[in-house]
Amino acid sequence: MEISHLTALVTGGASGLGLAVTENLIKKGAQVLVLDLPKPESEDKIKQLGEKAAFFGGDVTQSEDIQNAIQLAQQKYGGIHAAINCAGIVYGAKTVSRGEPCPLDIFNKTLQVNLVGTFNVCRLAAAAMAKQEPNANGERGVLINTSSIAAYDGQMGQTAYSASKGGIVALTLPMARDLASLGIRVMSIAPGIFHTPMMDSLPEAAQKSLAEQVPFPKRLGQPEEFAQLALHIIENPMLNGEVIRLDGALRMGSK
Ligand SMILES: NC(=O)c1ccc[n+]([C@@H]2O[C@H](COP(=O)([O-])OP(=O)(O)OC[C@H]3O[C@@H](n4cnc5c(N)ncnc54)[C@H](O)[C@@H]3O)[C@@H](O)[C@H]2O)c1
User: Fold this and answer.
1) Residue of 121, 124, 196 to test ligand 1 pocket, by largest number of atoms within 8 Å of CB
2) Domain range summary for the chain, segments of one domain joined by +
3) Which of 31, 182, 213, 215 is 20 to 30 Å from 52 at the Cα level?
4) Mean pLDDT (10-residue bins), the chain, 255 residues
5) pTM, full prediction
6) Which of 193, 198, 209 to mutate to test the pocket of ligand 1 (most atoms within 8 A of CB)?
7) Edge-to-edge strands, sheet with 82-85
8) Which CATH number is associated with domain 7-244?
9) How far is Cα 184 from Cα 176, in angstroms, rounded to an integer?
10) Is the CB of 118 under 6 A from ligand 1?
């Protein structure tokens, strides 16, 4: 799909990887509806991007918030052609720690936001895309989900996060098959370690140690590099039903 003039919904679009996608889409002429948790500083950040960016304060676990965000995109910009799921959370907790079982609400919450939230956005965005006219190549839209390399080599303490991201890997192909006849593609990106506010929540020593484990380039990824891939996926019609690792060949150890 050609990026100029399309409208994208970007969840988690006010920070980190999602913000980079939002900014790069706008630079290329797209219109972006950001769905992120309602925080004044997030809204201000998106307002500064100009007329082609709009903010909807909501939660990806709430169907009504997603529907309202999609409706706003349709009213303001006339449709929805891409949905990029970047909203996500990370909690570290071992299955049993100091004799105590992992609190189940940590596992549930991570699954709800990262996996169920992603599916919720996909199903509602795809239903809206299905009602639109296809472009000259028969395309009605593209869905891009953010998994993680933790889906493949999760570390100690990552059961919830890895399970949520593994679920995104697993749903990519069946969802692409479900939506093929509608002209809607589905792709996922499994990032390695990127320099974002989420990563900044780790102690500096841990960030340094993770960066040193990356074979090449030996550094954290830049959100801009994630955005480059997301935009390429939108543009390249043969990319469908696949998960792309974006990790500098990193394979994480057990801790
Ligand atoms: N940074 C990394 O190294 C890395 C690696 C692999 C995967 N990821 C994944 O990439 C995605 C983006 O991560 P990031 O590093 O940019 O993090 P981030 O914390 O900078 O951004 C995440 C955004 O999601 C929003 N969000 C959280 N819960 C939400 C909810 N329920 N509804 C709506 N919005 C919500 C937050 O407000 C925030 O703006 C996440 O899914 C994360 O798991 C990140």
Assistant:
1) 196
2) 7-244
3) 182
4) 96 98 98 98 98 98 98 97 98 95 96 98 98 96 98 96 98 98 98 92 81 94 98 98 98 90
5) 0.98
6) 198
7) 53-57, 31-36, 7-11, 82-85, 141-146, 184-191, 242-246
8) 3.40.50.720
9) 7
10) no
